[in-house]
Design brief:
Layout: E1 3-6, E2 12-15, H1 26-36, E3 43-44, H2 45-52, H3 58-76, E4 85-86, E5 90-92, E6 98-100, H4 101-111, H5 114-124, H6 137-167, H7 171-185, H8 188-195, E7 201-205, E8 210-211, H9 220-233, E9 238-240, H10 243-247, H11 256-263, E10 267-276, E11 279-288, E12 294-303, H12 304-309, H13 311-326, H14 342-357, H15 363-377, H16 382-398, H17 404-421, H18 426-438, H19 442-455, H20 460-472, H21 476-489, H22 496-507, H23 510-522, H24 528-537, H25 540-548, H26 569-584, H27 588-604, H28 611-619, H29 623-632, H30 653-657, H31 661-668, H32 670-677, H33 689-699
Parallel strand pairs: 1-6, 7-9, 7-10, 8-10
Antiparallel strand pairs: 1-2, 3-5, 4-5, 10-11, 11-12
Helix pairs in contact: 2-3, 4-5, 5-7, 6-7, 9-13, 14-15, 14-16, 15-16, 16-17, 17-18, 18-19, 18-20, 19-20, 19-32, 20-21, 21-22, 22-23, 22-24, 23-24, 24-25, 25-26, 26-27
Length: 700
C-alpha cells in the first residue's frame, strides 16, 4: 500500500518508504483520521462540516471543507494521485489505499497471526484512538461513539481468539495474546484500582436478569444482587463495586472483560433467576475479568417463599465459595438487620432503585411513597428508614425543591430512626452529618462522618461524604484517599467526579482535574467543573464553550430553579452564554455583567441561595455574594460549592484572602473544625493554634 497511518494515540501518516507526511492543518488531519477509521465507508460532506466547523454558516463551512481538501491534494501531489475519493455529497478513502494499525490488528487476529497481532497490541498499549483531536462537543461525542464501537469490536475479536486458543490447548499462544491484551483492556489507572490497594481483590456484582416470569411479580433478582453486594462487601481484602455503578450494566451487550475494565475490577459476579410459577432457580457465576472465563458456579432451586426466607443463607454460601475460589478469608462477616416481610422488602428494593436514579419527573415522590409503605409494613426495618432518608436528601439536591432545608431536616429525622433501629448504620450517620452542615456545625458533621466510615469503610456513599467534608474545610490532602476510594468502589457515579475534579484542581493537578471533569461529562453530568479545570489550563475559549454546552442538560439533569419560569431555547442559549463568559472568559466586563445578574437573581428568586447562584459566584470570586448566601443559608444542594473555596486560582482565591473571610469562617463554625481536624492546606501560617487565634482576632 502507498501509505500507512497510525490511529492509536496521536494520528500520524507515513509514505510507503516510511517517511512521515507532515499535515499542518488540524482539520485536514482530523478529516483523514475520521475516514480511516472505516476505509471505504463514505462520510457526508454536510456531516463533516457539522463536526469540524461547528457554529459556522453552511456556506462558510462548505468553503472551509473545500480549502481543506485542496490543501490535502497539494500534499499528496508528491506521492501521486490523491487517496481521497470525493463527490458533491460524500468523501471517502477507498479500502486498500492506506494500511492502519487498527486494520492490521484486526486482519492479523482474523488470520490467526498472533505474533504480529501481539506486536501491535504491545506497541499501542492503552493508547486511545485519535487521542489528540479536539474540536466541537459534537465532534467529541461522535469520536466517543466511534471509539466505543471499535473497542468493543476489538474486544469481542480478542475474546473469540482466546476462546479458540484455550479450547485448542494452545497454551503458549493463549498466554502471549492474553499478556498483550491485558495492556490494552485496562489502562494503568484502571489497573491500579484493583492491583494497588493493599492487596485487595476487587469485583462487581452485575444485575441478575429474570426469565419466564409469567404472572409472577417478584424483585428476586434485585434482592439476590442486594444480598450479595452487602455480604461480599463485608469481606476484608475484597473491594466490591457499589450498587450504583453495577446497575449501569443492566441489559448491556458489552463483553464481560470490557465491563470489568470500565469498572476497574478483577472479577465479576453474574447470574440470573428463572421462574416456573412459584418455583425459582438462581444461577450465580464468578468470572475472571480479564478473560471472561467462568471460575466457579452455583445453583439453588426452591420456591419464592423459601428463597426469600433463606436469602441470607444463600448469600452466605455464595460468599464462602467465592472467597474460597479467590483464596480470601470470608469468615466473620456480620449480617444486616433486614426485614422478614416479603412485601416490605419488595417495596424497599423498588423505592431504592428509583432513589438511586434520582433524576426524573416525580421519580423521587414515587420512591418516597414506596419506601413509606415498606416501613409501615415493618416499622423495625432499619435499611428501609435509611433508604427513605436518602430519598429526601436527593429531593433536596436534584429537584426544584420549595424548602431544601426542610427536606434536610426530614432526612435527619429518618436517618436517626434508622440508627435507633440498628446502631451499626454508617450510611444513616453520613446523612445526619449532611444536616449538621445546614446547622453550621461542620465539627459535628466531621465527627459523624468519621463514625460512619468506621462502621462502613466500604460504602462509597460514606467515603465520598467524608472526603467531601474534608474538602469543605480545606483539608484537601486528607480528603484525597477517601474520594479516590469512593470512586474505586463506585466508578460510574458521575456526580463524584465533580468532587474528584475539584480535589485535583485544589492540589494543583490541572491535567487530573480535566480528566475527571471529562469523565463526569462522558457520564452525562453537568460539565461546569470540567470547564473550570479547562480554564485553569489557560484554554479559555474551550472552557467557555464546554460550560455553555451544559445547557443541553436542562430539564434532564439540571432543572430550572423553583419559582422560575421555563426559558425558551433562545433565552436559554443567551443565559448560558452569559454565564459561561462571566465565569471563564477571563474578561472583567463579562465577569462584572454576570455578577450583576447573579445579584439580581439573589434578590428575586424563591431560593436566594440556590446553587445556580452560589456556584458561579464562587468561580467568579464574587466575595460579597458568596459570604452573603452561605452566611444566610446552607443546604444539601449548595454545600458542594464549599469545596471550590480552596481552589488556589484567580479570581476564586480572592474570597479566601478577603478580610471578611475569617469572621465568616468563625461564624460558620469552620474554626472549630480546624482546631480539631487541622488547619486548611492553604493556610500554612496557621499551623500554630495560638498564632492562628491571634491572626483571626486581628482580622475580625
Amino acid at each position: 500500500m502507498p501509505f500507512k497511518a497510525k490511529l492509536f494515540g496521536g494520528f500520524r501518516l507515513f509514505s510507503s518508504c516510511g517517511r512521515e507526511i507532515e499535515i499542518g492543518n488540524r482539520r485536514a488531519r482530523a478529516l483523514l483520521a475520521m475516514l480511516l477509521l472505516d476505509p471505504g465507508e463514505p462520510l457526508a460532506r454536510d456531516y463533516i462540516c457539522k463536526l469540524l466547523w461547528t457554529g459556522r454558516f453552511e456556506a462558510q463551512a462548505r468553503a472551509s471543507l473545500r480549502q481543506c481538501l485542496l490543501a490535502l491534494s497539494r500534499i499528496f501531489e508528491e506521492f501521486g494521485p490523491t487517496i481521497l475519493k470525493t463527490s458533491r455529497t460524500e468523501i471517502c478513502i477507498p479500502a486498500g489505499m492506506v494500511s492502519t494499525d487498527l486494520g492490521d490488528l484486526e486482519a492479523f487476529l482474523n488470520a490467526g497471526k498472533y505474533d504480529e497481532a501481539c506486536a501491535i497490541l504491545e506497541e499501542i498499549g492503552a493508547e486511545p484512538l485519535l487521542e489528540q483531536l479536539h474540536f466541537s462537543p459534537e465532534f467529541e461525542r461522535w469520536l466517543g461513539i466511534r471509539r466505543d464501537k471499535i473497542e468493543q469490536r476489538i474486544s469481542t475479536l480478542v475474546q473469540d481468539r482466546l476462546s479458540k486458543l484455550a479450547s485448542g490447548d494452545r497454551q503458549a499462544e493463549y498466554a502471549h495474546v492474553l499478556s498483550a491484551w491485558s495492556g490494552r483492556s485496562t489502562s494503568d489507572r484502571e489497573a491500579a484500582r484493583f492491583m494497588d490497594h493493599g492487596g485487595e481483590i476487587s469485583l462487581a456484582v452485575l444485575p441478575f436478569p429474570q426469565f419466564n416470569i409469567g404472572n409472577v411479580t417478584s424483585m428476586l433478582g434485585e434482592g439476590v444482587v442486594d444480598e450479595l453486594i452487602t455480604s461480599l462487601g463485608q469481606v476484608r481484602g475484597l473491594l466490591v463495586t457499589g450498587r450504583t455503578s453495577s446497575a449501569q450494566y443492566a441489559e448491556t451487550s458489552l463483553p464481560l472483560p470490557r465491563i470489568a475494565a470500565e469498572l476497574g475490577v478483577s472479577h465479576l459476579v453474574e447470574g440470573c433467576v428463572h421462574f416456573e410459577g412459584e418455583n425459582a432457580r438462581i444461577n450465580v457465576r464468578l468470572i475472571d475479568g480479564q478473560t471472561g472465563f467462568e471460575m466457579w458456579s452455583y445453583r439453588h432451586d426452591g420456591t419464592l417463599t423459601d428463597i426469600f426466607a433463606l436469602r441470607e443463607q444463600i448469600a452466605s454460601a455464595v460468599r464462602a465459595d467465592i472467597c474460597r475460589t479467590l483464596k480470601v478469608d470470608g469468615q466473620g462477616a456480620a449480617s444486616r438487620k433486614m426485614t422478614a416481610n416479603r412485601d416490605a422488602y419488595s417495596l424497599y428494593l423498588q423505592g431504592r432503585a428509583l432513589t438511586s436514579r434520582a433524576i426524573g419527573e416525580n421519580l423521587l415522590d414515587t420512591a418516597t411513597g414506596l419506601l413509606e409503605q415498606a416501613v409501615e409494613l415493618d416499622p423495625d426495618f432499619s435499611e428501609g428508614w435509611a433508604a427513605l432518608a436518602e430519598a429526601h436528601v436527593n429531593k433536596a439536591v436534584y429537584t426544584p425543591c420549595l424548602d431544601r432545608t426542610a427536606e434536610s431536616r426530614k432526612m435527619a429525622e429518618l436517618a436517626q430512626i434508622a440508627i435507633d433501629k440498628d446502631p451499626r448504620q454508617g450510611h444513616a450517620r453520613a446523612m445526619l452529618a449532611i444536616h449538621q452542615w445546614t446547622l453550621k456545625n461542620p465539627l459535628r458533621a466531621l465527627d459523624l462522618a468519621y463514625e460512619a466510615f468506621a462502621l462502613e469503610p466500604d460504602n462509597p456513599y460514606v467515603c465520598i461524604r467524608l472526603g467531601s467534608f474534608l474538602l469543605y474545610i480545606g483539608r484537601t490532602k486528607d480528603a484525597a484517599p477517601y474520594i479516590e476510594r469512593a470512586l474505586r468502589q463506585d466508578p460510574v457515579q458521575g456526580s463524584s467526579y465533580a468532587v474528584l475534579s475539584t480535589l485535583y484542581l485544589n492540589l494543583g493537578d490541572i491535567d487530573g482535574a480535566m480528566a475527571a471533569g471529562q469523565r463526569m461529562t462522558d457520564l452525562g453530568f453537568p460539565s461546569m467543573w470540567h470547564a473550570v479545570a479547562i480554564a485553569a489550563s489557560g484554554d479559555r475559549d474551550r472552557a467557555v464553550e464546554t460550560y455553555r454546552q451544559t445547557r443541553r442538560l436542562m430539564n434532564s439533569v439540571i432543572f430550572p430553579p423553583v419559582g422560575t419560569e421555563p426559558m425558551t431555547e433562545e433565552a436559554m442559549d443567551i443565559y448560558w452564554t452569559i454565564a459561561a463568559k462571566g465565569c471563564l472568559s477571563g474578561k472583567e466586563q463579562d465577569r462584572a455583567f454576570y455578577c450583576q445578574m447573579l445579584d439580581g437573581l439573589h434578590a428575586t428568586m424563591h431560593d436566594p441561595c440556590d446553587p445556580s447562584i452560589t456556584l458561579p459566584a464562587i468561580w467568579m470570586g464574587h466575595t460579597d455574594l458568596v459570604l452573603k448566601t452561605y452566611g444566610k443559608c446552607i443546604h444539601p444542594a449548595n454545600m458542594i460549592g464549599l469545596m471550590s473555596l480552596w481552589t488556589d486560582i484567580e479570581p476564586v482565591r480572592q474570597i479566601r484572602l478577603s478580610p471578611q473571610f475569617i469572621p465568616f469562617a468563625r461564624a460558620f463554625g469552620l474554626v472549630d473544625a480546624w482546631e480539631k481536624y487541622g488547619w486548611p492546606d492553604l493556610m500554612p501560617a496557621c499551623a500554630d493554634n495560638a498564632a492562628n487565634d491571634r491572626q483571626f482576632k486581628s482580622q475580625g
